[in-house]
Amino acid sequence: MLKIRVIPTLLWKDFGLVKGVGFDSWRRVGPVLPAIKVYNSRDVDELFLVDITASIEDNQPDHDSVSDFSEECSVPFTVGGGITNLQQIVSLLHAGADKVAINTAAYANPDLVEAAAKRFGAQCVVVSIDAKRHADGSYGCYSLAATVDTAKTPVEWAKEMAGRGAGEILLTSIDRDGTMLGYDLELVEQVTKAVDIPVIASGGAGNYAHMIDVVKNAGASAVAAASIFHFTEQTPAGAKNAMQEAGIPVRRNFVSSAAK
Fold first, then answer.
1. 114 with 162: CB under 8 angstroms?
2. pLDDT at position 260, please?
3. CA 197 from centroid of its chain's CA atoms
4. Which of 177, 191, 236, 237 could pair with 259 in a Cys bridge, judged by C-beta atoms 3.0 to 4.6 Å apart?
5. Element counts in the chain: helices (H) and strands (E)
6. What is the largest CA-CA distance in the chain?
7. Is it the case that residue 25 has pLDDT exceeding 60?
8. Residue 41 CB contacts under 8 Å (≥ 6 apart), including other chains
9. Is the pTM of this model over 0.90?
10. Domain 5-248 class?
11. Distances in whole angstroms, Cα of residue 51 to Cα of each of 18, 24, 141, 195, 240
12. Domain edges within the chain
């Protein structure tokens, strides 16, 4: 098994960080830069920063802010929100992003993922899939911050994106987002079994056991989380300790006092 990554997710809206439940009821949790500085010392493997209103409001990615943020970020930095063309990706990479996350634009123009992977390498391209369970138990993919049903299923869409060169999938359960009730294991397992690229589980982490569960029982290659780190005393280093004790290999950067 490859070493499992722990990735805090920063949801960025109107100059600050927010967090909600089910992609709604956004609650402000503070500015971006202090959060990045804190995570630099918390034994995290990567950081995701997603501008959650860029696509809805048809805004360009804020390259200047990303440049400021990246100067303070000492771990691999993935940026998403509002990306619709290759030149924007070039600008974000020049601003200090290590990877880009593409969601809404991929549905309208799947060729963007293929072109980005060919130009920048698959390792640079993360396709973000926001999925919701329908009344009949099936899952659907949603775009524009979970407001538009794309009529795609997570499995078929993940397969297509992997085929077009995506390096990994960020898979978020809309239903579990912000609830801290645990990841949607069925959703994650369906996608991990369908593709041979890493799948990052997102949406629902409330304790370390949830992270262990989604890795061991659903095949996730990484765990992304927000609320657990914003609103509880649990830490990325603590998550790594718990996973390591459960027999899951993790990357260790240093021993953090927060994990003791």
1. no
2. 30
3. 15
4. 237
5. 10, 12
6. 47
7. no
8. 256
9. yes
10. alpha beta
11. 10, 14, 19, 27, 27
12. 5-248
Give the C-alpha separation, 77 to 49, whole Å.
Answer: 8
Encoded amino acid at 123, one letter:
Q
Q: What is the pLDDT of residues 198-257, one digit of tens each?
A: 999 999 999 999 999 999 999 999 999 999 998 999 999 999 999 999 999 999 875 433
Q: How far apart are CA 216 and CA 189, in angstroms?
A: 10
Residue corresponding to tokens 């619709």: 84
- Amino acid of residue 106: A
Query: Residue 239 CA to chain centroid, in angstroms?
Result: 17
> From CA 23, how far away is CA 145, in angstroms rounded?
7
What Cα–Cα distance (Å) separates residue 82 from each residue in 41, 59, 71, 116?
A: 29, 6, 21, 15
Three-state secondary structure readout of 213-251: HHHHHHCCCEEEECHHHHHCCCCHHHHHHHHHHCCCCEC
Look up residue 200 and give its two tokens: 């990052």
112 within 8 A of 105, measured Cβ to Cβ: yes
Q: Helices in the chain by DSSP H: which ranges?
A: 32-40, 63-72, 86-94, 104-108, 111-120, 154-163, 185-194, 208-218, 227-231, 236-245
Dihedral over Cα of 108, 111, 114, 119: its sign = negative
